[in-house]
Amino acid sequence: MIEPITGRYLTAEVAGRTQRIFFEEAGEGRPVLCLHTAGSDARQWRHLMNDAEVTAGNRLIAFDMPWHGRSLPPEGFQTEQYELTTEVYIETILAVIDGLGLERPVLAGTSMGGRIALQLAALHPDRFAGFIAIEASDFQPAWYDIDWFDRPDADGGQMGAALVSTNISPHAPETERWNTLWLFMQSGPGVVRGDLSFYSTDDSLIGRLAQIDTAKTPVHMLVGAYDMTCRVEDARRTAEAIPGATLTVMEELGHFPMSEHPEGFRPYFLDALTRMP
Description:
Layout: E1 6-14, E2 17-26, E3 30-35, H1 46-49, H2 52-55, E4 58-63, H3 86-100, E5 106-110, H4 112-123, E6 130-134, H5 156-165, H6 174-185, H7 191-201, E7 219-224, H8 232-240, E8 246-250, H9 257-260, H10 262-274
Parallel strand pairs: 3-4, 3-5, 5-6, 6-7, 7-8
Antiparallel strand pairs: 1-2, 2-4
């Protein structure tokens, strides 16, 4: 069987550097731009992109951030250490939107993708129709030490997979649990560390939550009950700080719902899409 997902590359300028960005898409209709978690790539969204009910009226688009998956690092990467920043993250997303000619897509982001979705809701709401922030909070102090990712005697990908494995729900099917972890095992050197640096230091969002206007661009948040990185209370605190935002707790899901337990996540995602214009 040939899946309905098609993949291509987009060349875009981000922060003064040329980036070759891989993206996949499936479906027709309203554009929904999907962001992957830290240390992984767009393959996390493959189940939703293969779902005929989801794609019947929605054009799902998921891309690999530079340095991730099938998007190579920029030229000269061998002399630098990857470290994601809020500014570069936003510029990358807007460059993808411009490059693909998307007109006010819905933005659906998970983990660090959910965090940046809230930043965009505050800073660039006019570029989007609405926001689905998954496993997202205003700020999450690190419960991990990212410095040990620099050890030369250990595999960074396997360490990243081990770190996040506790954030997968015990209800997740075994096959999808390991498929989720495999994407982390494939992560490039320093990528998980650079993403987690963003996730644990991006505190500029806290003061911006109140300026999000959900009357113009709705914000719906989803959080897994088994997520120990972004806990239910973290997501609820964040939603309460955004006037008009809504929140749904996903009882049997963890931090990677679209890949760890796609069937469990499906009804929540479909409901979230109905809340978007």
